[in-house]
Each structure stands twice: as structure tokens, then as C-alpha cells.
Amino acid sequence: MAFDVQEFKKEFQKKFEELFAYGYESGSKTEQYIALGDLVRGLYSDDWIQTVTDYNKKKEKQVFYFSMEFLPGRMLKSNLLNMGIMDCVKQGLEELGLDLDEVARAEVDPALGNGGLGRLASCFMDSIASTGLAGNGNGIRYRYGLFKQKFINGYQIELPENWLRNRNVWEVRKENKAVIVRFGGDVSFTQDGDGKLRVHHENTRDILAVPYDTAQIGYNNGIINNLRLWSAEIPYGDEAHFSTEEQREEVKRITEVLYPDDSNYEGRLLRVQQEYFFSSAGVQSIVRYFKQLKLDWSLFPDKIAIHINDTHPTLAIPELMRILLDEEELTWDQAWEITKKTVSYTNHTILQEAMERWPETMISDLLPRIYQIIQEINRRHIDKKMPLYGEELTQRTAIIANGQIKMANLAIIGSHSVNGVAKLHTDILMADTLHDFYVMYPQKFNNKTNGITQRRWVQIANENLTEMLDETIGTEWKSDPEEIKVLKAHRDNKIVLDKLEQVKLANKKRFADYVLKEMHIEIDPNALFDVQIKRLHAYKRQLLNVLHILDRYLQLKDDPKANLQKRVFIFGAKAAPSYYYAKQIIKLINAIADLVNNDPAINDKIKIVFVENYGVSLAELIIPAADISEQISLAGKEASGTSNMKLMSNGAVTMATLDGANVEIRDNVGDENIFIFGLKSDEVQEYYRNGVYNSREIYEKNPRLKRILNLLIDGSIPGVETEGRDIFDSLVMYNDEYFLLKDFDGYLQAQYEADVAFSDRDRWNRMALMNIASSGPFSSDYTILRYADEIWKIKPQS
Ligand code: Z2T
């Protein structure tokens, strides 16, 4: 993008005055940010139009990534980076007396997702544009994002996240692209003169879906794709049908707020309304686009790929069937062929409690025509498979059973590809969770290990490391992430290792400043920063981390001179508001933090920092400062994990079980550069099957562990009488569902080895370097190229 500093300064001043009618010097940071964002959006609008025009002209096949969640993070700096004007803008602002980072911080971080799944969708949008693929996002423009987390007396409190309080400079409302989504009503059939059955769907409640589009800018390639988020409104001219306040509220409610559950299913009517709302709107706008190409319907799958991110958008399948059957009058067989060839599905979890199942009556009342189509898909499936696979196996794959509609079954049957998100996860799906389907459709199953975009997670989040890499190995890694492997040649270069240590130290200081300012806790940047940042879930085992901290606490209480590495334990985690146990764990960690941080006997050898409101922006601050990356879920439970990849890319050493993508991280980085402990996934399976695990026995026989667990119930930790008791009981009396006690010894041993390694600075720096140098394969650019090649059948534009 041709652009110079002087020109930028002029344009910025002009834009500011145009918007606010006074000089930028007297504006607030938010106003300066809005002016800058508005200016930047104007700079890419030509490329945006050009990209759309090109796709249309070439009738390029396009992918539509349907996701209930997107977690883009602040967009200003990533847009500047991808447009190639970061340095120019930084310099220009500086000459105007402004600091880019300060202005950028005025942007509200849109929290339109829960965790891994939503952030993955945004990494994918960045990679789709950056690898030059024709792709679009399709989702919901929630009026309120994921709740804002506060701690009051150590308890999690949830506040509404009004992310649109200021103007959103990136979105463009496209009123002319609005569509109607219909709920309820009556379905009837009449026979035409030619004997054809005609469907009538009447007395529906019609909601207007209005799209808001946001540019997804490719990295230095001039390509700008689209993220389309839908908002529910009352149809123009239809106000008479929404005359009461209650009726108007009901419409608004559909896109009012994101459900705050990560890997947990919430069987509410409003949730399924949300799912149908954005799936239907998305499919309708795709069909409208396809019709304008004036091609035969059989070519639909040659022009369109629809990808569903977990089962949340599965209703796109019967919705596409409905449009092809009822509106376009294709036969069932034609419509079914097209639908299957168009749709592909990613599974993100094997946890049973996360599997979506809707009561039949809910769907038949809310979506009567969609319900009929699901019934027919199910009937044909059973009819076809029964003679081939017999009664039992076939019935286990039914979409409708016991009054419930199983969305995963519909997603698998209605699509041509089913993928897991890490090798181990896909293996478990095939061998276990989805084994019946694997027997029926082995060719549908494939793995696509997750990835992350190093543009945000290294170039933007870690400028110090970026600069050091540029100096050491050149800039090739920025456009081809695998190229970072050449850093391995410097593994024994003392100068490089020292530089890396300085980079880490500077990042740790930056985080320490934040912690001092925001939390009034003083932490030592020379201590080992031990980081666990992810949603709070029993299976992720934040509690195992806690048991380790308590072990150190007791060692220091017994002997203040104990030879232990000084550590700062950093947590970031939100608990679903209705997840009582997870909230108890938050309270426990905060209580232990109060106790340990203020105990003079500990003498600052342990500090615990539980940051409030963890999200993308805080991740960008914490990850570059991490020494250890805690990835300690019970083997077999974490589908992939992605913070493991972000932390590795920033030179943290992983402390891990062999779960999710940790297995592939180990394979890439080598055993000597990672700490592995704990049960393997097949060992866990075996325990579940033969049921011989007895946590009570471990408690009784392991005095060190017993002493720690007793701290929970003997009043040693003030303020957690109920929480301590409940957590103790879950671990000792109710047989410890996630095998914390079983993995405890191995975890302590691995942590001890980490202490030893950290005290040898050269060794640790070499480990950090090897992690950075081995992180290239985890770029979402490669993940996306594999989706494009093997599932979507689309090619990068040249
Ligand atoms: C989610 O973030 C994940 C899985 C879900 O299953 C739902 C949500 Cl909201 C329905 C996570 C996985 O737990 C994590 O292992 C994975 O890395 C991430 O999705 C992206 O695939």
C-alpha cells in the first residue's frame, strides 16, 4: 500500500476534525482510536471491493465458515500489520505526539466467543485471507459478548460486556443484504396439476436478519475477505406484528447475548433460535449469491463449501435442503447430493456433556418444516443402513432417538467430511466416540490439527521477539512460518541465547508492571513465570496446579531455606456462570493467593497472580512473558488446545500430559525440550473400563499428598470452608473423576526437573529457543491450506 508518513499525518488530522469538529490533540484516546480506525477502513475499501469483484468475475469457489463464535481480538494493529502500514502509522502518530500502543488500547476487545473454538475461528479467518483463499465467516453479532469477569472477595462475579458502547469502526451494516428468517407456523401440502407436491408454510413469525460485515485483511497480499455477523431486527413495514413491548423484546433477544458455556451444552430454546437464525441467514445469502452466477444447481458444490464449526450451525444442513426442495423445487435426491457435497463438519470435543441434543418437540414447535426434513433424513438413513449394518449399529447412529435430536449424528450424515482437531483426538473419535459412524463412513473421517496465527501471537503480541528473530534469521519466517526452523542453527550460540533471555525478561517486566498497577502485587521478573491460561474446567485440572503450589508452600513452611526455584504462578480463567464447581475452584485459588502472597515465611518465593477477565488482549500480554506453559488436562479429554501452541511460539517450555496437540508438540520439539508426565490416554480408558481406580487409597497411602489435601479442610486456608470441603470430597470421597491424585507424583517430579533446568540459564534458554524454532508447523496457515486442499477443494489465488 503506497503511503507515506506526511500524507498519513495530514489524513489523520483531517479525519479527526471531520468526525469530532476539534483538533486531535484535545481528543480522548477513544476518539483518536476511532478517527484512526475510520481512516484505516477507508484505506482498504478499494481492495475490499476489488476482492469481491474478482471472486465474482472468476466465479471462484468460496468457503463459508459457519461459527457461533468469533474471537478476533483488537483489530487495529492486526489490520495495520496485514496492510503493511504499521511502521508508517506508528511513526506518523509519534510525530503527532501520540503513541500507537496507547491509541490501540482504546479499542474494545470484542469477546464474541468463549475460548478455543471462537479464537480458532478468528485465527482461521486471518489465515484464509493471508494464504489467499476465497473464504468468508458467518456468525452472530451479539449485542453483548462473553461476560466481564470481576473478583469480589475472591468469588467470580459476571458483568455484561457492552462491547458496542463506542462506535465499532470496522463493521459495515449491509441493509440491502438483509434476509427474513422464519420461525413457527403451520406446514401443509397440496398437490399440483402435474402431481407434484407443494409445501405451504404459513403463519410464521418472521425475523429480519441484518448483516454487519467486517473486512478480513490478508497479510501483504491485497486480499480482503468478509466476516458476516447477523443481527435480529423487526422487519421493516411489519411493525404491526410486533405491537407489544414483549414481542419486540423477543426479537431483540435472539442476538442479545452469547451463551457463556465452553465445551458444555445448554439446552435452551433461545440457544436453538440463535443457531437456526444465523445458519438460515447464512445459507439464504449463499443461495442468493449462487443464483446470481446463473449456473445449474448441480454445480453448487463446485462453487460453494459450507464448513460448520462444531454442531452449533448444523441446522444449515436441513435449511439448505429446505431451500432446494421447497423454494427451488429440486428432487430429494438432487438436494441431498448437493447438500452432502457442500457441507463439512469439525468436531471439537469428546465430552458427552458438550454433545448437542434437542428435544424433538422443541424443534417441531419452533421449526416445523425443518423438523419434517430432519425426520425424512433420519428415515432414509435408517432404511438405507439397516440391511447393511443391522439393527443395533444402525439404531445407534439414528438422528432421532428417545425424543431427542442428536446434532452430531445429523452433522455427520449430512456432510462429506468429519474432522477432529489433533491426531490423538481424531484417533479417539474413530476408535471410540464416533466409532459406529467410522464403520459406516470411513472415508469421511480425517484429521486437521489446529493452528494459530503467528502474525497476532508473535508479531503483534511480542515485538521484542520479532525484532530479535529478524536480526538473527531474517524475515522469511513472517511469510512462511516453517522457516523459523533455521533458528535451530543458533541453539548453542551464546549471544543469541542471551538475547533471547533479555527479550523474555523485558516481556516479564512489562507484565510485572501491569500486575503491580492493576492488582497491587509485586512480582520479580527474574522468577520463573508458570502460566495456566484457559477456561476453568475440571478436566483441564487447574486443581492439579494448585496441589503443586500447596506442596511448595508446605516445603517452605517446613524449611524457609528449602532449595526451590522462585516462581510466579499465573492463572487466567473464566468459569461458566452456572458451573458451580469451577467457581469454587476460582475462589480456592484466590484464597490461596491471599494466604501465600502475604505470608512473610514464604518470603516471595511463591507468588500467585490470578488475572481478572482473561481474554485475547490479556493473552497477548501474558503469553510473551511465560516461562512454563501448563497443559495438564487428563489425557484424552482436551481435543487439541491452542494456548499450548501460542506459548510455545513465544518460547515457553511446555509442562504437559500426552493430550490433544501436546502429543504433536512433543514430536516436533523433542523429549529434551518439554516436560511430559501422567497417564496416557489409553491408560485412562482402561481405568474407566475396568473401574479399579481408588483415589481414597492413594490419599491414605501418600502422606505428602494427604497433608496437602487436608489443608483444604482443616482451616489452614481462610475463607474456603465450603469450597475446601467440596473439593476435598470430589477428590477423595467421590473418586477423583479426572485422576489428579493418580498423576500427582509424576507432576511433582516433572516440576522438580523444570526447577533444575531453569536454574541452568543456558540450558533453559536453549530449550526456549528450540520451542520457538519448532513452532512453525503449528501455524494456522498450514492448517487452513490442508482444509482447503483436502476438504473444501479450493486453491489460493495467485
Ligand atoms: C471450545 O472452545 C472447544 C470445544 C468445544 O466443544 C466447545 C468450545 Cl466453546 C464443543 C475447544 C476445545 O476444548 C479445545 O481443546 C480446542 O483446542 C478448541 O476447541 C479448538 O478446537
Features:
alpha/beta, 23 strands, Rossmann fold, allosteric enzyme, single chain, carbohydrate metabolism, six-stranded parallel β-sheet, binds ligand Z2T
Question: What does this protein structure show overall?
Answer:
GO terms for molecular function: glycogen phosphorylase activity; pyridoxal phosphate binding. Its cofactor is pyridoxal 5'-phosphate. It catalyses: [(1->4)-alpha-D-glucosyl](n) + phosphate = [(1->4)-alpha-D-glucosyl](n-1) + alpha-D-glucose 1-phosphate. There is one protein chain. The chain folds into 2 domains: 324 residues, Rossmann fold (3-Layer(aba) Sandwich); 263 residues, 3-Layer(aba) Sandwich (Rossmann fold), CATH 3.40.50. It is 49% helix and 15% strand. Strand 14 and strand 15 form a beta hairpin. The two termini are 18 Å apart. Ligand Z2T binds next to helix 6.
Topology:
Layout: H1 5-20, H2 29-58, E1 62-66, H3 76-83, H4 86-95, H5 100-104, H6 116-130, E2 135-140, E3 145-152, E4 155-161, E5 171-173, E6 179-183, E7 186-191, E8 197-202, E9 205-217, E10 224-233, H7 245-254, H8 269-292, H9 300-303, E11 304-309, H10 316-327, H11 332-342, E12 343-346, E13 357-359, H12 360-366, H13 368-396, E14 400-401, E15 404-406, H14 407-413, E16 418-420, H15 423-433, H16 435-440, E17 445-447, H17 454-460, H18 463-473, H19 476-479, H20 494-519, E18 528-533, H21 542-558, E19 567-572, H22 580-597, E20 606-611, H23 616-622, E21 628-631, H24 643-649, E22 653-656, H25 662-669, E23 675-676, H26 681-690, H27 695-701, H28 703-711, H29 721-733, H30 740-759, H31 761-773, H32 780-792
Parallel strand pairs: 1-2, 1-11, 2-10, 11-12, 12-16, 16-17, 18-19, 18-21, 19-20, 21-22, 22-23
Antiparallel strand pairs: 3-4, 5-9, 6-9, 7-8, 9-10, 13-15, 14-15
Helix pairs in contact: 1-2, 1-4, 3-17, 6-32, 8-10, 10-11, 10-13, 12-13, 18-20, 20-31, 21-22, 21-28, 21-30, 22-29, 27-28
The structure holds ligand Z2T.
The site of ligand Z2T has 19 residues, from helix 6.
